[in-house]
Structure formats: structure tokens, C-alpha cells
Design brief:
Length: 463
């Protein structure tokens, strides 16, 4: 099918609307967004293929999404899915290590990959006359990856250094890495995606080989191709390079654990030797991404709280009360139970308790008090503009399709979620906030510089 998404004029209207701050409640409701015309099929071996033909640019985006993330890490081996993401760039039977860089960067393209809680994706964009080569390369590293001791040891060392750089060396790295472990009690999201050095050191080559056989298989993958291609030729190439790869007889393991409802508020303390100022994080459990109505209402709530300098948390904690230098809120919907998170990095001389009080006040106020149409329209326009900006490129469209197909329950959501976003009302925000935040229990993490912990302990002993 030919992709006819041309939202440039619509996008200009949205940007103008956001800039002028119009309070007209009819603006968002009247937007008609052209649907993404995608084609979807499944090969006999189980590989799902989604494609969008678009000749706007002589380029093509190729993405391989594997239905495996950190929630699937073996017990005691956190960081395994992330480690395997690195291994996929090493040698195969017919490719040298790092050859994916040569196949993309040397022709003016790019490639990268990411690991999340639920998925691992590998993505490239190249001139469209290199599509055949990229399809062969993705099929090659799916079917003929060299999982050997040399590659395993070298990439394990890289991931360990990544942990040191992103978690240990960042002033608030330990705080954000602690959110999932403290927010979940049973569900395997409690294992942080980046893992730990202890778990990585405990891993063996046999663990790696078993992980590859278990999860890297055609019936656990989705190929997404967007851009300048001939549909008939694409189908022939996909059949040629992927169709022969056998589907294993063993079924793909499924997560059976469930996260129990929180029965009480819980509180934890994390300390840091390098954080200059205290911080605070609060989380609540929210529904899976397949609950589109509530998930999107919570995204709007998070935007009302923290999107931009005019947001409620910034105005309260940073501008008026000046107890924080940075604030944020996020509604992270996943395949399993998600998290609504708010945080504050404090200003000098202030304590987590001050920020907690103000955060709770703003959450209760948002959940119970009227929301003006101007404020609601502003954040919905911001979210809609961001989504449409993403869809200006083949790579962005492919990411939107992958999110819909693998996380939200089906590719069709790429054409329905933006309509749902435009329909979110103040009543929807109130309902979602009262159901999942003000009517539920929270987890709070106090993040303290080591000196602050010592001073607090000394004060307690003096009493």
C-alpha cells in the first residue's frame, strides 16, 4: 500500500495553536489526522511483517523488534536482554563484528538498538537501494549469530562499563535505577534493564546460548519496513531471507507472574556519595498499555503536571516555593502493570519532606479541582504535535508502529490513539487520577547524599 501521510500543514496549525495558547475547545476536536496505511502479514514460521510504502524520501527504515526485554531476564541474571542487544552487533557466520556499521554508516545511513522492559529493537535507516542488503543482514544475525566466549566476554565488559557510566557515575543514576526494583514486588519489571555488575559477572556462555535459542526466533519477532520500496519486491526479499528460518518446536516462555495490589504506602531510602542535593521519587501502579483510555488519560495528567515551565509542578516547586531545581512526571504504560512517577531534585537547603508535601498537593488538586479548557488544550496539543513530528520520517513511523503492535496490543492503535488523545476531557483526567493515584498506595524513595544520612542519624541518636 502507498503511504499518504502528509501532516505538514496540520502540524503547522498545531504549532501555531500551541504558541498562541488559544483556549478554543474546538481546535483539537476538529483535527482530522490521515491514517497510516500499513500492510501486515505473518510468515509460516511466525515472523510478523509490517510495512508502509512512502516515496517522500529515497530512504527506507528497517526495524527488527524482538518480543523480549528485561522482564524476561533469567533469575539472578538481570541485564541479560541488554547484554544480548550488544552481542547482536558482533560477528555472524557471514558478517564480521560491527559490520552493521559498515552496511549503514558507509552509505550515509545509521543504525542503533535499544532494550526496554518488554522489547528489544534494532533499527536502521539507509538509502532505499540498500534495502535488500539490510534485510539480508537482519536475517543473518537472527539465524547465524556467533555466540562464543570471545564475544560474550568483550560485550559483558562493555555493559559493565555502561552500568558504571550511567548509574554509578551519574549523581542521580542510582535513584532512577532504583525506581523499578522498589516499585514492584513480584512482577519481573523489578529487575532493572541495565542489570547489575554482580549478575553480569555470574552469567555464563551457556546462559547466553540458552537465551538466544529461547527468544531470538522468527515467531518472537516483528519486522517493520517503512519508506521507499516496491511492495512486491519487498515481499519476495522477506520470503527469501527470512522465510527459511525454522520455527522452534519449543513454545516461547510467557510471563505468568502478577503484581499484587499495594496494601499500604511504602518508603525506602537510597544514598549517594556523589549526589550534591537530595531528591524524592513517588510511584503508583497503573494499568497495562492495552487499557488505552486510562493510559492516554494518565499521559495527559503527567503532561499537565510536568510538561514545560508552565506546568503545575514547575510552577509550584521550582518557581513559587523554590524547594526544587528540577521536577518531572511520567505515565509509563507497559505490556504488564505500568508506573506513574513523579520526582523532584531539591534546591539547596531543602528536604525531601518539603517536596513530598507539595507533590501530593498538586496531585490531589489535579485529581479533584476544575481543569481549564485552555490548560487541557495546551498539553493535548503539545502531545499531539510531538506525535506528528515523530511521523515526519520513515524511522518515526516505524517506531510508532512498533509501539502500537508490540506494547499496545496491535498495529491498529497507531491510527486510533491520537483520536483518543484529542477526546480526553477533564473528567477523564479526574477519573484516572482518582482511580490510580489518590485512591491507591504509593512507593516513595528518599534519595540522600551520604552526609545528609549521617547527619540525620546523629540527630536521631541525640534525641
Amino acid at each position: 500500500m502507498t503511504m499518504r501521510l502528509r501532516p505538514a500543514t496540520l502540524l503547522a496549525t498545531l504549532v501555531l495553536f500551541a504558541a498562541t495558547g488559544s483556549s478554543s475547545p474546538a481546535v483539537a476536536a476538529e483535527l482530522r489526522i490521515p491514517p497510516i496505511q500499513y500492510h501486515q502479514r505473518t510468515l509460516p514460521n511466525g515472523l510478523q511483517v509490517i510495512s508502509v510504502e512512502d516515496h517522500t524520501s529515497p530512504t527506507v527504515a528497517v526495524q527488527m523488534w524482538y518480543h523480549v526485554g528485561s522482564k524476561d531476564d533469567p533469575k539472578g541474571r538481570s541485564g541479560f536482554a541488554h547484554l544480548f542487544e550488544h552481542l547482536m552487533f558482533k560477528s555472524t557466520k557471514h558478517m564480521h563484528a560491527e559490520q552493521m556499521d559498515r552496511l549503514t554508516e558507509d552509505v550515509g545511513g545509521a543504525n542503533n538498538a535499544s532494550t526496554g522492559d518488554d522489547v528489544t529493537n534494532y533499527f536502521e535507516v539507509v538509502p532505499s537501494n540498500y534495502l535488500k542488503t539490510l534485510l539480508w543482514a537482519e536475517a543473518e544475525r537472527l539465524s547465524n549469530l556467533n555466540v562464543d566466549q570471545k564475544n560474550f566476554q568483550s560485550e559483558r565488559a562493555v555493559v559493565e562499563e555502561e552500568y558504571r557510566t550511567r548509574v554509578l557515575a551519574q549523581p542521580y543514576g542510582k535513584l532512577f535505577n532504583a525506581i523499578d526494583p522498589y516499585s514492584y514486588t513480584r512482577y519481573p519489571y523489578k529487575r532493572p534493564t541495565i542489570g547489575s555488575i554482580k549478575d553480569l559477572q555470574a552469567a555464563s556462555l551457556r546462559n547466553v546460548i540458552n537465551f538466544h535459542k529461547t527468544f531470538y526466533r522468527p515467531d518472537n519477532a516483528t519486522l517493520i519496513v517503512v519508506g521507499d520500496f516496491d511492495p512486491r519486491q519487498l515481499a519476495l526479499w522477506v520470503n527469501r531471507y527470512f522465510g527459511w528460518i525454522p520455527k522452534p518446536a519449543m513454545p516461547v516462555p510467557q510471563i505468568t507472574a502478577s503484581e499484587p495490589p499495594r496494601r499500604k504506602n511504602r518508603r525506602y531510602t537510597v544514598t549517594s556519595a556523589i549526589a550534591p542535593l537530595p531528591a524524592l521519587v513517588m510511584t503508583w501502579l497503573i494499568p497495562p498499555a492495552t487499557d488505552s483510555a486510562d493510559s492516554i488519560a494518565l499521559q495527559v495528567a503527567a503532561a499537565l503536571l510536568s510538561r514545560g515551565d508552565s506546568s503545575r509542578l514547575y510552577q509550584s516547586l521550582v518557581y513559587r516555593h523554590q524547594v526544587a531545581q528540577q521536577v518531572g512526571a511520567d505515565a509509563d504504560s507497559r505490556i504488564g502493570p505500568g508506573l506513574f512517577t513523579v520526582y523532584a531534585i531539591l534546591a539547596s537547603g531543602h528536604k525531601p519532606a518539603e517536596a513530598e508535601k507539595l507533590l501530593n498537593e498538586e496531585i490531589i488538586w489535579l485529581a479533584t479541582q476544575p481543569i481549564s479548557s485552555a490548560e487541557l488544550d495546551k498539553v493535548k496539543t503539545q502531545l499531539l504535535t510531538a506525535a506528528l513530528k515523530q511521523r515526519q520520517t520513515a524511522q518515526g513511523i516505524a517506531f510508532a508502529l512498533g509501539q502500537a503492535a508490540l506494547i499496545e496490543g496491535g498495529a491498529q492503535h497507531v491510527n486510533t490513539d491520537l483520536a483518543l488523545l484529542q477526546k480526553v476531557s477533564a473528567a477523564d483526567v479526574h477519573r484516572a487520577m482518582q482511580k490510580y493515584l489518590t485512591g491507591a498506595h504509593s512507593v516513595t524513595i528518599d534519595y540522600l547524599p551520604d552526609a545528609a544520612k549521617s547527619a540525620s542519624a546523629a540527630k536521631g541518636e541525640a534525641k
